[in-house]
Amino acid sequence: MSKKGSKTKTAHKKREPRYFDWAMVFIVIFLVVFGLVMLYSVSSYNAGIKFSDPAFYAKKQGVAALGGLVIMMVIAFIDYHIWDKLAFVVYVVAILLNGMVLFSSASANYGGSTRWLSLGGMSFQPSETAKFAVIVFLAAMISRVPQKKLGRFKTILVLMFAAAPMFVMVAVSNLSTAIIIIAVAAVMVFVASPKYLQFAGIIALIAAAGAVFLMMFSYRISRIQVWLNPGKYKSGYQTLQGLYAIGSGGIFGKGLGESLQKLGYVPEPENDMIFSIVCEELGLVGAVCVIIVFLMLIWRFMVIAQNSNDMFGSFLVVGVMAHIAIQVVLNIAVVTNSMPNTGVTLPFISYGGTSLAFLLAEMGIVLSVSHGIRLKSLAVEKTSASVQKPYLKLVNGKTTENEETGKNEDDT
Predict the structure, then answer these.
(1) What is the largest CA-CA distance in the chain?
(2) CA atoms lying within 13 Å on the CB side of residue 154
(3) Mean pLDDT for the chain?
């Protein structure tokens, strides 16, 4: 081939259009805006009493939302492979920040829990950095493991134990976040491994670790007792009021802003109990619509993960998907009293500037992975039945040319 022909081919390759998941951007913006509207509706009564400003919580969340959306779009157009290089540094920094909560004088106590750091007049939850760090670190580790070794039980244990230091550090002060961290790690390793039966051992280890923490901190057992019989214990008051809110909403709800349970009956409804007020004001229909929007978001995650150019990108997306999906399930399960209270917030909707900012940063990474997808490859996958891969085939890292032609690598 002549040099001229080679240059033309290279230039054509560089000009090849790339994908960007604008559908995901619109879904995220909708959730953020919906969250701000619901937050104002839910928190205006309490904010007016505490701060003489009904929009106090909504304003603070709005600032975090604007900053987070800017961060999301900036990260979206940065090559996501930079996180592969920074994975270990991010992990160590997150451990140090969470360690400061336990041992530093900069830690702050709110609502009886020491989960915040106060630096330079600003308070934030380091546990949010832990979720982000585990996703990046495990994605980097999994992408470095040879495919043949991913099915070995020893490899699975090594990957799970990589998240153990973060789990222990966070669990001391914030067990609910620690549960999310270990669950995200388990999902990522499960997707990476082609063998499933050995995960029974992993589940047993996680259950054993949970039992140890319950014995170490016996006061947490009371949450199980309250869950089984909320009407018998004083601490079941929040759960009962949340259930009253859900039941009184009916099919179509009382209308936006018309909730009665938010008027001092449900304690701090702007946090983890906000979904109960959504049910009261918008009814079953509104609650189902919110769940459908989250399902649409998870669907976009799956599309991007399946079409990512490499294993690292795929598992970044899998990790973020697991984080959001687990948190949504846990929050709704707690609000409906399907499981003991964990204090897990509803992503994009519950009050929490640190949580929202890190969620949007994670979404920026997912959009960055989507930006690396070639439109030509995506079009081929949609039109050719031979290229429709099962989702769990992400262990291959990327679709090889041999897979696209229906051949096995061994045949060549």
Answers:
(1) 84
(2) 3
(3) 82
pLDDT (tens digit per residue) in 345-382: 999 999 988 899 999 999 999 999 999 887 655 555 45
- 20 phi and psi angles, rounded to 5 deg: -145, 125
Give me 255's structure tokens.
């209308």
Q: For residues 398 and 401, give the distance between their C-alpha atoms in angstroms, rounded to a whole number.
A: 10
- The C-alpha atoms of residue 321 and residue 319 are separated, in whole angstroms, by 5
User: Residue 118: beta bridge partners?
Assistant: 123
pTM of the model: 0.84
Measured between its terminal Cα atoms, the distance across the chain in Å is 25
Q: Could you give the CA distance from residue 274 to residue 122 in angstroms, rounded to a whole number? A: 25
C-alpha–C-alpha distance, residues 145 and 143, integer Å: 6
Distance CA 280, CA 257 (A): 10
* Interatomic CA distance for residues 142 and 43, integer angstroms: 42
Q: CA-to-CA distance for 205 and 283, rounded, in angstroms?
A: 40
CB 357 within 8 A of CB 67: yes
Angstrom distance (rounded) from CA 273 to CA 260: 14
Phi, psi for residue 52 in degrees, rounded to 5: 55, 30
Rounded distance between C-alpha atoms, residue 342 and residue 290, angstroms: 21
What's phi and psi for 114, nearest 5 deg? -95, 90
Cβ contact 86:132 at 8 Å: no
The pLDDT score that the predictor gives to residue 405 is: 40
φ/ψ of residue 166, rounded to 5 = -70, -40
- How confident is the model over 273-328, as pLDDT tens digits? 999 999 999 999 999 999 999 999 999 999 999 999 899 999 999 999 999 999 99
Q: Which two tokens stand for residue 118?
A: 């106060």
* Positive or negative torsion for Cα 20, 320, 135, 32: positive
Closest listed residue to residue 171, CA positions, set 222, 121, 206: 206
Round to whole Å and give the CA distance between 2 and 394: 38
